Amino acid sequence: MKNTLPYTLSNSFAAARDEAEVDNLLNTDVYKFLMLDFILAHSEYRDMRVRWKMTIRNKDVRIADIVPESAIREQLDATRAIKWVSQAWLSYMRGMHVGNRAMLREETLGFLSGFQLPEYSLESDGNGGYTLEFEGTWAESTLWEIYALKIVNSLYLYHYAKKAELSPIEWNGVMTRMYGRLYDNIENVRSDSRITFSEFGTRRAASTDIHRQVNAILAWSLPGQYLWTSNVMISMEMGNANPKWTNAHELRMIPTAFEDTSEGIISKMYEIDRQWQAHFPELGILLPDTFGSSFYFAHAPEDIARAHTGCRIDSKDPMIAIPEYQEFLRKWDIDPKTKIALPSDGLTYDVIQRVTDRFHGTIGTLTNGWWTELSNNTKGTIPRERERFWPFGSMSIVVKPDTVWRPDLGGWVSCVKLSDNPSKAMGSPERVVLFKKTFWVEGMERQEVVV
Questions:
Q1: What angle do CA 349, 314, 79 make, to 5 degrees?
Q2: pLDDT, tens digit, 9 for 90 and up, residues 222-246
Q3: Average pLDDT over residues 330-350
Q4: Both ends of the chain: CA-CA distance in Å?
Q5: Greatest CA span in the chain, whole angstroms?
Q6: How far apart are alpha carbons 299 and 267 in whole angstroms?
Q7: Nearest partner of 294 among 427, 117, 439, judged by Cα
Q8: How many CA atoms lie within 13 A of 337 on its CB side?
Q9: pLDDT one-digit tens code per residue, 107-156
Q10: What are the C-alpha distances in Å from 348 to residues 184, 324, 369?
Q11: Domains annotated on the chain, with CATH
């Protein structure tokens, strides 16, 4: 009997068609290009050598037992084989604007016109996982992050479905549950016109195929509330020249790895935020949780407070973080109604609704960066009594700068991220101790890491 069901592995995953999950370098978040533009504009940063490392925070996910090493290599190799961004795509990128000016400089577009990703290193860690690393100059290596995350996330779901021998009926059950959750979120958002959001789920999308469908559904269903996606390729395909995003923790993690004193680390953190504000004054969104937002707000200089445009709430409960941000603004006699608050970590509709009820009207713009619950809402969708192997669905996976090469020391030094959630802290023990001593770890709260 011919399979007439709407969802198949072949129309859900590029790997099932023997195609590349990432076959276009624009299949990434726009902030990677914003970061690249900033890095290339600053000679002190562009040639810093950086090693990046993949980390799966969920200790109960044994990815090597699901995804063959050869499958990951095949996908990484296919993406690395892309040797440039085409002139057609560069023309689109030239049309992306921030405010009333071009988003990216011609130097950045020229860099991309002859760009190829640097090599990677992949091996089993002997404990059910893989060690995946990338090395190159900051300018060369920064783009690997999103491509690698997209590849690993999609391969995990695809190979899990194959290994569990899910029938076509069962796979349609998975997809029906996922899209049912999406439509439930849509109906909830539609019922409250105060809620707006941007779709930030590229890095953990179930697949590129599914990500495209999710954004098409959002655009049709929620005009005016769905502000757009962070994905450059999907933005272009859908006819929009302004994908949404801010900046990333790497902006502070990498330069501070060159500092060995508390004074130097603190100074560098604020210096690079000043540089970002000067480079992208329209996108002066603070990301204060890199080393702890309580410390950041307590010590932020007045010029940064007055020049920034808003704050992304990442690893702290927005119900705590937004009042803390508002108090920071009032300290400098800045009206909170002139700024943006952007909750963006592990959001669910229930969290968005609670934050909206509490803070709508108390800040200039309250909007949301919605991630995994839109693009990979697959947890608990296996249509069986129990998962046959390790947990099925989305997982907490990151690719972050791991170490930098210090010419002054002749060796590699660890990058550090503390965040407002100690469960997300990363870095070598000795460097983490230094950063915790520097930033007090005041106001941090250990939470379960779900995305």
A1: 95
A2: 999 999 999 999 999 999 877 777 7
A3: 96
A4: 40
A5: 71
A6: 10
A7: 439
A8: 3
A9: 999 999 999 999 999 999 999 999 999 999 999 999 999 999 999 999 99
A10: 11, 21, 11
A11: 173-375 (3.20.140.10)
